[in-house]
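INTERNAL TRANSFER SHEET
From: sequence group
To: structure group
Subject: Quinolinate synthase

Please process the attached sequence and return the structure record in the designated field. Keep the field labels unchanged so the import script can parse them.
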Amino acid sequence: AAGERERRIESALDALGDDVVILGHNYQRREIVEHADFIGDSYQLSREAANSDAEYVIFGGVTFMAESADIITDDDQQVILPSMEASCPMAGMAEALQVDAAWEKLTAATEDDVIPICYMNSYADLKAFCAEHGGLVCTSSNAADAFEWAFERGEKVLFLPDKHLGTNTAHDLGLEDDTLVWDPWADDTDPEAIRESEVILWEGYCQVHERFRAEHVEEVREDHPDANVIVHPECRREVVEAADRVGSTADITQAVENADPGETWAIGTEIHLANHLDRWHPEVDVVPLCGDACMDCNAMRQIDPNYLLWVLEELVEGREQNVIDVDPATADRAETALDRMLEL
Ligand code: 13P
Ligand code: SF4
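Return from structure group:
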């Protein structure tokens, strides 16, 4: 059945020709990335979406990525997400409604100018909120640049939703002692702590990367004493400190691409990328940090190849399914925040 499905996907792609481009995030399963025209991290895929002139951009990824693609592509291009169930739990941890209320509390507690920065892993209305308040978007590959951009314009940064990426970025910039993980709904936050902090972090996290612990790094080093350990910056600080390197999924891919034959690389990110790297680089020993179940993202896994086949065959029949359509007013403001990132 899988062979038949592959044949049908290829024949639908042949029929659609240049009308369609398929973008595949590094965490997508093999049966999706094998059909992708571009495979990459969130930042690279947003650039590919911006550069593409295909009528249909089929996004192998999660909702927030498809929304961003819709915002930065032209109005006559359609972005299609093969499954509407593919929603990143982290993005849902900072909804614009909550952030609006928290912003009032925050700005009432300090006279400093606060610049909001939202991680790409957020919904369009939060990106719009950031633009409105003078801020921008960043991904895991340009968070430090985004913080520097913000500190040229204000005294404090509010970073959301990922407290771990925020903590790791603050460390990179030597701001770890001026960082507060803030729960806006806790009554016991000392207002002085807000006034004294330069980096204020929302209490969000990635369910996959938070599962990694420093013990996993120790275990992998016991089993593979020569291993180079590289982890994603969505990991806890203790994991980043125990690892040899930290980087976005594109950086992790590049590290394995540049490895010498026979080297061992232990990968602290989503399991599908570790599996792709193992398959693409048989000369390198690629080891997952804590096992298949621990490293699996259930949001990314929603993009089943049967759904890819379905959206493609529907397009061949002239029907557009699962179109991601951000409302124009939100899209317009969110685009400002994305453009500020693309210009970094
Ligand atoms: P990057 O591809 O930007 O490294 O992001 C990782 C991620 O968690 C995307 O959901
Ligand atoms: Fe969201 Fe984490 Fe999955 Fe990325 S890996 S889509 S951040 S839950």
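Handover comment: Residues 62, 88-90, 121, 206-208, 270, 297, 299-300 surround iron/sulfur cluster (ligand 2) (CB under 6 Å). The longest strand covers residues 20-25.
Transfer complete.
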